[in-house]
Amino acid sequence: MVRLVRALARGVDDVATPAGVRLLAAALAVALLGQLLANTALDGLLVSAFGLSVSASYTATLPVGPTTAAWLLVGLWTAGSYVLVVVCRAFAAPDGSLRVEDLTRDALPATLRTAVAVAVGGVLVLVGSAFGVVPGILLAAHLLFVPVFVAVDGSGLDDAVVRSWRLAAAERVSVLVLTTLAAALAVASLVGAGVLVGATLELFLGSAAASAVAVSLVAVAVDVRRQHDDAGPGRARRRTRGAGV
């Protein structure tokens, strides 16, 4: 049985380490640039491209065309997937440090698999959310550990999905509480940023909040997986590829 309070405390501690702070800064940079590029692409592709006379009033855009912004978003998605791979590996390390191996080991295959997994998983969660909040949260909870298995264990997408689904089913209550809490925090922080501050700061604070929730969620998910594996029958202190999980 996973102790969720311990996982939450361990996740916060991991994010507060020097390596965690650096990874959080990288995630914030990706989120902030991604929001700027999305604003630029939407302003151009969804409004100006259709000849509408009223331009969208986004708080901030970049001085590039919408097509360029869309291509840059694709590249940024890949970069963000690489950051996610490194985050998973760093938090799975026994000492929570950021090693050269975390940055280089099977970097391209792991990044591409993670990019596909997050994209497909995001679409599935959106489709599930169209039928209600509960289906969306259930899908998100069962796919939560896919990036961990891909980044840390080098699993293929099909194997990672199966293993994530089984882990979430085995630790159903803890994983559902964690996913619901993360979703609530993300929504509350984004809404709070829009209400409490002006439009200029909203973009930065919203991106910062989303990044903090995402990185912390990964850290907690890694510890949930660690606890689940340690409690498994015949575990005998086995370690996966020296990653400490």
Your description of this structure?
By secondary structure, the chain is mainly α. Helix content is 76%, strand content 0%. The chain has ten helices and no strands. It has helices spanning 4-15, 18-47, 66-92, 100-104, 107-129, 133-142, 146-153, 157-170, 172-196, 199-230. The longest helix is centred in the C-terminal third of the chain and has 32 residues, at 199-230. The model is unreliable at 53-57 and 236-245 (pLDDT under 50).
Short description:
The protein is an all-alpha fold.
Structural features:
mainly alpha, 10 helices, 245 residues, single chain
Portion of residues in beta strands equals under 5%
Give the number of domains.
1
Distance between the termini: 16 Å
Helical residue percent band? over 70%
- Please provide the count of β strands: 0
Give the count of helical stretches: 10
Q: How would you describe the shape?
A: globular
What structural category characterises the helix and strand content? Answer: mainly alpha
Taking all residues together, what is the mean pLDDT? 82
Low-pLDDT windows of residues: 53-57, 236-245
**Please, what is the oligomeric state?**
single chain
